[in-house]
Specification:
disordered N terminus; mainly alpha; two-stranded parallel ribbon; about 475 residues; about 70% helix
């Protein structure tokens, strides 16, 4: 995937939108998305398991297990399994999201304001438009406005699982764009949760959480190491944040943002990258699937699926995810590119942006969480909103699949070009076009092949002259 010449093959050109990623960024992205893809498959399995469990004769056991309480009541932590999954396990997910955001800001796509403007604007439009669609539908239908934030989130793991199932070799630039959208989504989702879904505040507990975060930051700056220091401290911060009335996942993203993600000289990984590498499998492979297992199990009998398309709250969620996300991201990207004079990578086309925008309509994990928070006083509506999230996510996945399949041959060709390593030095050839040593290595390889073919030609000619070869 060619980019404008820069003199340095490891530096991407910010004026070209969706240009080739710098090699370190591409390597990091491949590792991160590989874990998220596996986690996304587990997420799909967990969601399907929850739906089957909640719609079989043993559905009562699903509610029994989910409502089972455990934890020290003296610390205000006597919570149900479902509650532990939403407030506890998702704190791990948001911890990783905080590290991702910090890394993007200091070493990734968001470090250059000019380069960051376009994906950030696209992400913000991709959150604002679904909320607007929800508000318009419910204003017209007389529904509740409480669920306006439900369709604003993108589930990167679910989206990557769809790509894995399709076998679509999406170019790394498009995958990075999707990841950046999801990272910005996560940031604003946690702000929405903290601002709009916080009711009664326990000031002492909140001050205690802030004090714990200050200690966490101080220890990091002093270079103190050891999981046995940070894990207990993180649990104390989480517990205080939970008891303060602010959603406990805020503690996770706050601690993630405090980690150093810029590499010092001689470091192969920054501390943030190292911790993310250790924690991401726990987040993608355990925390998020378990949350899905205890949140996605909604009964789809009794006309629930029919109500999804007739009740304004649920219809607003479906249209927000399917229509709002696609229009918001695509429209925001097009407008940002137009006003910043950014040019689209010549190897891609605007229909590719539409396909990714449609794929971003898969808003599973955080949408389910916000749905629970928005309608906590109405369990019946909560289940219907969950059904709407599932329905909208599936529709978005199907539509994105169709759009992506139309360009699958092009994606495969671009992906193969990105992966080609003819000189076998573990660096893709596209990153070495300005390196004289690369061309000398390739010349030696081709000269060796030419010499071998000359030897074979001489051998074949000699064999034919001796009458041993074909006439």
């Amino acid at each position: 995937m060619p980019a404008e010449p820069t003199g340095d093959p490891f530096v991407a050109t910010p004026r070209t939108f969706l240009s080739r990623l710098p090699l370190p960024e591409r390597t990091y992205l491949a590792s991160a998305l590989r874990t998220e893809t596996v986690g996304g498959v587990l997420l799909l399995v967990a969601a399907v398991t929850a739906l089957i469990w909640a719609n079989t004769p043993i559905s009562d056991s699903y509610e029994t297990v989910g409502d089972f309480h455990l934890g020290p009541s003296s610390l205000g932590l006597d919570l149900s399994i479902r509650h532990w999954a939403a407030d506890g396990l998702l704190a791990i997910f948001f911890f990783v999201a905080g590290i991702e955001l910090k890394r993007e800001l200091v070493a990734g796509e968001l470090r250059d304001p000019r380069a960051a403007a376009l994906p950030v604007i696209a992400a913000l439009c991709g959150m604002a438009m679904p909320a607007l669609v929800y508000v318009l539908v419910n204003a017209a239908g007389g529904g509740s406005m409480d669920g306006w934030a439900v369709p604003t989130a993108t589930d990167i793991a679910f989206a990557l699982a769809v790509l894995a199932v399709l076998g679509t070799s999406l170019p790394s630039a498009l995958r990075a764009f999707l990841l950046t959208l999801a990272v910005v989504d996560d940031l604003f989702a946690i702000l929405i949760i903290a601002i709009f879904f916080t009711s009664d505040i326990d000031v002492l507990a909140l001050l205690g959480a802030f004090a714990g975060l200050a200690v966490f930051w101080f220890l990091l700056r002093k270079g103190v190491r050891g999981w046995y220091v940070y894990v207990p401290l993180a649990l104390v911060i989480w517990a205080l944040m939970y008891n303060s009335g602010v959603h406990a996942t805020v503690a996770g993203v706050a601690m993630g943002l405090m980690l150093r993600c810029a590499r010092h000289e001689g470091e192969e990984q920054s501390p943030g990258e190292h911790i993310e590498h250790l924690v991401r499998p726990l987040s993608a492979g355990v925390a998020v699937p378990l949350f899905a297992l205890f949140s996605a199990g909604v009964s789809i009998g009794g006309g629930v699926l029919g109500d999804v398309f007739t009740r304004p709250e649920t219809l607003g969620v479906v249209l927000g995810l399917v229509v709002g996300k696609a229009l918001g991201i695509f429209g925001g990207t097009w407008l940002a590119a137009r006003f910043t004079r950014a040019t689209l990578n010549e190897d891609l086309a605007w229909p590719d942006i539409l396909a990714v925008a449609t794929l971003a309509g898969i808003g599973f994990t955080v949408s389910l969480l916000i749905g629970e928070l928005a309608f906590t006083d109405d369990p019946g509506l909560t289940d219907e909103v969950k059904a709407a999230v599932l329905t909208g996510s599936v529709i978005a996945a199907v539509l994105a699949s169709v759009l992506l399949r139309l360009r699958v041959r092009r994606y495969r060709a671009l992906s193969e070009a990105e992966e080609q390593d003819a000189d076998m030095n573990l660096i893709p050839d596209v990153y070495e076009q300005d390196d004289p040593e690369y061309h000398l290595r390739m010349a030696a390889i081709y000269e060796g092949k030419a010499a071998e073919h000359r030897r074979l030609a001489e051998h074949a000619a000699a064999a034919r002259d001796d009458g041993a070869g074909p006439a």
